[in-house]
Write a structure and sequence with these properties.
274 residues; alpha+beta; Creatine Amidinohydrolase; three-stranded antiparallel β-sheet; 4 helices; 25% strand; globular; binds 2-amino-4-trifluoromethylsulfanyl-butyric acid; binds cobalt (II) ion
């Protein structure tokens, strides 16, 4: 049995109980999510061949500062950057550095801005210059996987419905779903209950209720699903060095479906910046 609690009555920590948020929290999450989305929109004009991922990180930090928001990843569990930049076979948690992006790379930029205590968590893929057809296809499949997962979000559905929708689509497209990382409850905490798996079976998992807020953030590989963590303790890469992609949105469950807090104000969907 899964327990739910009004978020206003819950301690601000991960107790495993699922918080149900009120309207005011949804409005605050909308503001935080929109700011994160605006940051990701602005990055579309910046991210190009020759730009370093450290420059991207600096931009995210400055953007947050300018808008009264802090990057959640900065000093989070020993992580020292304002975003994650995951290139090509890097699955997630790539650490920004001084290496320039190269023509043909695909890079995921994952930003979480904290506004008034609320976390807007989102990531997108950015193709650098001209990318190969296989890479472009992976990016499209991954975006569609996320949106199919989101389409499942409504009261009475279960987390397994989200995972199944993602897995069925990605595998039908001859791609694989990473099992080692998942979406998560989010709000005043960066990572909260429940875990949102990107694979699974319909009808399984916990029931979705109005007021739940969580991320969906599938990582999809062209090759095998298995990953390993590099010696820096963060960078996750595909074991077979195949390409990996990820998109992430933060969503809230409403009475009749869901609200996506991190939609692009510029109207960007799957990397229109090719
Ligand atoms: N933003 C990531 C997520 O989607 C988490 C990054 S944690 C970090 O949950 F420490 F690696 F930055
Ligand atoms: Co994220
Ligand atoms: Co997340």
């Amino acid at each position: 049995m899964q327990n739910y609690i009004p978020a206003s009555a819950a301690p601000v920590k991960n107790t495993g109980t699922i918080k149900l948020y009120e309207k005011a929290a949804f409005e605050a999450m909308h503001r935080a999510g929109e700011l994160t989305a605006r940051c990701l929109d602005a990055l579309a004009d910046i991210v190009k061949p020759g730009v370093t991922t450290q420059e991207i990180d600096d931009f995210v930090f400055e953007f947050g500062l300018k808008h009264g928001a802090a990057p959640a990843t900065l000093n989070y569990r020993g992580y020292t950057k304002s975003c994650c930049t995951s290139i090509n076979h890097v699955v997630c948690h790539g650490i920004p550095n001084e290496k320039p992006l190269r023509d043909g790379d695909i890079v995921n930029i994952d930003v979480t801005l904290v506004l008034d205590g609320w976390h807007g968590d989102s990531s997108r893929m950015y193709p650098i210059g001209n990318v190969r057809r296989a890479a472009e296809r992976l990016v499209k499949v991954t975006y569609e996987s996320l949106m199919r997962g989101i389409a499942e979000v409504k009261p009475g559905k279960r987390t397994g419905d989200i995972g199944a929708a993602i897995q069925e689509y990605a595998e039908a497209e001859r791609c694989s779903v990473v099992r080692d990382f998942c979406g998560h409850g989010v709000g005043l905490l960066f990572h909260d209950a429940p875990n949102i798996l990107h694979f699974g079976r319909r009808g399984e998992g916990i029931e979705l209720r109005p007021g739940m807020i969580f991320t969906i953030e599938p990582m999809i590989n062209l090759g095998r699903p298995s990953v390993k963590i590099l010696n820096d303790g963060w960078t996750a890469v595909t074991r077979d060095r195949s390409l990996s992609a990820q998109f992430e949105h933060t969503v809230g469950v409403t009475e009749d479906g869901c609200e996506i807090f991190t939609l692009s104000p510029a109207g960007y969907t799957v990397s229109p910046y090719i």
